[in-house]
Amino acid sequence: MSNNINRSAHNVASSNEFASFALQSAGIGAWEFDPVTQLVRWDKRCQELYGISSQDVVLYEHTLGGVHPDDRSMVEQARQWASDTRSGGQYDIRFRTIAADTGQLRWIRCQGRAYFSPLGEVYRFVGIAQDVTQEQPTRQQLAESDGLNKLTTALSGTGVYRLDLLTDELVHSSTFAYRVCGNANAKLSRIEFLLALHPQDELLRQAALEQATRTGVLVYEPRFIWPDGTIYHTRIVGVMHRDETGKPLFIVGLVEELTQYTISPASLSTTELGFKALISASPVAMGVFQGQNLVVETANEAMYSLLECDREIIGKPLLAALPTLRDQSFAVLLQRAYTSGEMVTSSHQLVSFWQQGQLINRHYTFFFTPLWDSYRNLYAILATALDVSDQFIAQKRLEVSDARFRTIIEQAPMAIGLLKGRAMLVEVGNAKLFEAWGKTKAVLGLPIREALPEIEEQGFLELMDNVFNTGKPYFGHSMSVQLVRKKKPEVVYFDFVYTPLRDTSGAITGIMLMATELPQPIST
């Protein structure tokens, strides 16, 4: 009896240790919300991120106490939108929290999903939370430099907006608000924008956004329903900005009353003041090059600086105006995009140019996007050049962080391994893991079913698949497994946990496994 009690106490302690280590290592907290009872179940990591020390089950209203006062309305609107079937149940928002005891401010990202009954009523939310404070400064710098104020001045009377695709933050002019909801004084969130959109135009909006992700240009003609029932028809255009990997960051654009436009065959005519102003206001080097001769139709100051030229090249074929570009990557890739009619990208290209008498070396990522008219005729290429030189510093930091994490794993007092992808490739393992398995580092890179073929029929592979598919950790207590160690079959007992690993978007990318080998049970 005493041995059983001690073993049970040991199992409970081990489970708590595994859970704590897993969550701290991944830096992710898990939560679940019942909209009927208004109760939130969340782990210790979530409580830390919200800056609230409380019980594991609390009222939803209590969780809002940790949210920055200026962000609470946004958080509630995001929840309401996820509760609407038009959202697909998707919940993804970034906001600030303030710790009640220390006053520490954090930026966190909450991602989740709402589940609906056949009647369209939401009955459950599940999700994760992660600290993204370190990512915010870069986005704030982008927000300060994206030229929105400049664009608003250039297009006085036009509805100008900036949508952050990572935080869903919407910044806009008074004219934009008027065209969307009929109230020029309104401060619209993205959720309120979506709620004002005519329901029949939601698929149109989604299709336009998907196309913008591919082409870099947003164009669609949605209707909005004002509070008094008025249906207002608009045309929205925008330019998508990306990071050095090509990931969309934000869209800057404008909205106009549709009746003010005379639609030409080129549905996105770059001779329009609006589109030129979008490019001019962009902090990123951008230009439009028309026809087979790549005539420079418009460009901004950042592009002039990159090409070491001035406005004199407008209206001229690019290579005639700047013959030194003929054999350089910029011109070669630009011509390839026009010839193929497909988007061409090139990452971390070294560009050397003279600036104030000094030779400057910078690295750029290029995007060359074909522009088509309404008859599907290719008429121009939108070139975007993103300076990614500073990203090398971030990459070095990432490498250091990764090395530190691997060192922690190697020095951990328990067996730890990382399995990558649905195939469960053995990506990382410490010495205690290989010792427990009775294997060597030769199994690195192999699928787990090949690294440990003896577990094929013992149910562990099915447990791992379930963790990968559901995102729910699995805890094993005093479970036996037959392994081959030192070329001999052996029954071994473990306490262990399988924990899902997620990327920054919340998608599951693999599994972390942790185990402690237990003494052989005493026969009675």
UniProtKB/TrEMBL annotation:
- Top-rank taxon: Bacteria
- Which parts of the sequence belong to the PAC domain? 91-144
Q: Which UniProt keywords apply?
A: Kinase, Phosphoprotein, Transferase
This entry's Gene Ontology molecular function terms read: protein histidine kinase activity
Cross-referenced SUPFAM superfamilies: PYP-like sensor domain (PAS domain)
The reaction(s) this protein catalyses: ATP + protein L-histidine = ADP + protein N-phospho-L-histidine
* PROSITE patterns linked: PAC (PS50113), PAS (PS50112)
A Pfam family of the record is PAS_3
Record bears the keyword Transferase? yes
Q: Which residues form a coiled coil?
A: none
EC id? 2.7.13.3
Q: Where is the PAS domain?
A: 15-86
Matching entries from InterPro entries are given as: PAC, PAS, PAS-assoc_C, PAS-like_dom_sf, PAS_4, PAS_fold_3, Sensor_kinase/Photoreceptor
UniProt cross-references to NCBIfam families, sorted A to Z: sensory_box (TIGR00229)
What's the protein called, per UniProt? histidine kinase
The scientific name of the source species is Spirosoma agri
Q: What is the lineage of its organism?
A: Bacteria, Pseudomonadati, Bacteroidota, Cytophagia, Cytophagales
